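Self-study notes.
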Amino acid sequence: MDVLRVILIFLSIFAIFPSNIALSGNGKASQEEIVPVVLWHGMGDSCCFPFSLGSIKKLIEEEVPGISVISLKIGKSLIADYESGFFVHPDKQVKEVCEFISNEPQFDHGYNAIGFSQGGQFLRALAQRCPQPRMKNLISLGGQHQGIFGLPNCPSLSRKTCEYFRKLLNYAAYEKYDSVWVQNLLVQATYWHDPLNEDTYRVGSSFLADINNEREINQDYIQNLKFLERFVMVKFLNDTIVQPIESQWFGFYAPGSDQEVLPLRKTRLFKEDRLGLRSVPMDFLECEGNHLQFTKEWFIENIIPYLK
């Protein structure tokens, strides 16, 4: 089976879970100065779909009067923005967003940021690579900060079938002669993290291994993360999309295992303080439900306070 077929199979079984927003709840904010908030959508979504980020934008504007909400559009059209979640390398996306916010006066006094699914790790890359203007609070909803190793909804497949597809994606992500163009073509391959072959992952990963300082230490990344006032990570307790779900809290499988999962503080990344996370104020939030499935009330209670 060739690499292109691997990619198509991977995409075909990747279920999309838009945010499930209830229609009740209200609140008011009062603050002399409120900084803008930037939203970055996940895979299979776009900046402005009314049933997903469009509704989030409206909700924030209702709860924080006077706030400016910018839902990022990658590319020049909604179609291009949608496709970016699959086919535009994160490095290119982060660079485009950095150029945008650096040239917008409304961000001069800083901004807050909310990332949905893979938008969470993309915004973290933005904080690390683009320190001006300053990101104040980074809120990651279901982001995969240590990557993924497993197929979406894998429990619905037999173990043998699941392992077969996992091996195929490993080939697509890391094969010596194909990894560059595959990762340039398929965004999800850039944060595929194989704990059974950690050395191969570190060498072959074109995005995640870099922003996690897993090859060499980039001191700018460390310093820029420390500028955050708060790094908020939300884990969805019944998530069938992100495997392991602990990646949403920066945890991951133990090296050499696809069964044992380590919390952040027991990982090599934290023990060696490769990103300076020991000095970053972090909040770990939980949400019942599947990937990005939350209610309006939950969002108001748990996320809105960081924007006021």
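Second protein, same conventions, sequence then structure:
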Amino acid sequence: MALEKRTLKLVALVVFVCLIVLGFIIGGIIIGLSTGYRYPGLEVWPRSEEYNYEQPLIQFRASDPGSWHPWFKRINDFLLAYETTVPEEPPRAPCSVRRHDQRVVVAACERVLGMWAPCNADNFYGYAVGKPCVFLRLNNLHYWVPEPYNISKPMSIPPDMPNNIKQAMRQRPANHFGDYIWVSCNGEFSSDEENIGPIQYIPGNLPPGFPTKRLQTADRISRIAQDRPDQTPGPLVAVFFENPRRGVVINVECRIWTRDIIYDRSSRYGRVRFELQVD
């Protein structure tokens, strides 16, 4: 009888230990699955049909409409979610994907399209003249509470932060204008820096980044919404390549600047890369 009791206790102990181990395993799986979405991703558009994060190539020949028109269409398809006759202030994106001779003229929308020039349909987003625009957007915001850089709080600013961002911080202090998730784009390697040419961030009258008050981050949505994918498309930043060198592949890297995301070229958090070739 005593032996049976000891056996039962041993079995119970084994079961208890197994349940604890199983709990750790399940917990680890859950954490592992969720870790990839705890920080935001940075998307780039347009994308090819066979989009590959490691080698997302945008290639076209400016003199050949058949070469660049598919990219024009992909941008239009992407921007359809932003079409409106009552654009927000400041505008999240171009408010129409129709060219001026194809759309109903609405004064508010015409003003917004002017703000987004040359990254609008009237200019074929620059592809017809070999000066392309790409659009950047943050995703997976429903998991994220950002910690922005600004000059309104005592904190160190990274020494490698671009000067145009530092200047924007001084001109639009967060305690008056709100915080921004700053964004910058550069050639990925030294040879790319030589080939990439001048870059503009569009709209040009706004800081290079995403205003936090326009982002549906975890601190701005309900607890239930934090368990669901992003419900509304976030604001965009367009990157206009004024004069990329023709006939070469240019590796471009864009990244965001926040205190909580440590830049790491091997990571996908808060950064995106793509290849650009204009023939």
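Instructor comment on the second fold: The radius of gyration is 24 Å.
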